[in-house]
Amino acid sequence: MNRFxxxxxxxxxxxxxxxxxxxxxxxxxxxxxxxxNNVPNMAVASRLxxxxxxxxxxxxxxxxxxARWVDISTVFEILPQPxxxxxxxxxxxxxxxxxxxxxxxxxxxxxxAAKSVVDADYKQFVSLMGGTVIEDNTGxxxxxxxxxxxIMGDNPKDSVVNHECRCWDHSNLFLATTGVIxxxxxxxxxxxxxxxxxxxxxxxxxxx
Length: 208
Known about the structure:
The chain is of the alpha+beta class and about 210 residues long. It has helices spanning about 40-50, 55-65, 110, 115-130, 190-205; strands spanning about 10-15, 30-35, 70-75, 85-95, 100-105. It is about 30% helix and about 15% strand.
């Protein structure tokens, strides 16, 4: 187990992709169910201690429950809404006097329309496995993949970089980042970011 208590195994052992694409996307967001493989000892122990379980029984219950713990989360497709913005603040500055960022973000009806599908799937998961819901986090959460703000496009009026990840305003500046991706699907953007970075690196190599 590493210092974060997550274990030394792949954190994701699989997923359910049945609703990744389809005609339904005219009306609601695509979704992906991710099955996590984190070692849950810390979460299990915290819950048991809060219930007053201590000593040898605590150790026994941690082993018993951790071996039967399933952590499922769902990723929703996000459209590139122009109302979702990151702007320099007009009132707040950091220690260097640089404007801090003001983020405006809303979960739109397109995304919310998929929630009923997710709720139905989760009920089916619990039923099929004969499980018990330990914790139900129904709120919207960030999935930690930074995308957008320096988006790619064909027009310098509404984008920051072109298809090469080259900045419109500075032809010798390339942005090798997933920030050039304007919207988030349900699949992690890392490999796409790597591919874009390799392409940019090859262009830079030719031009130096």
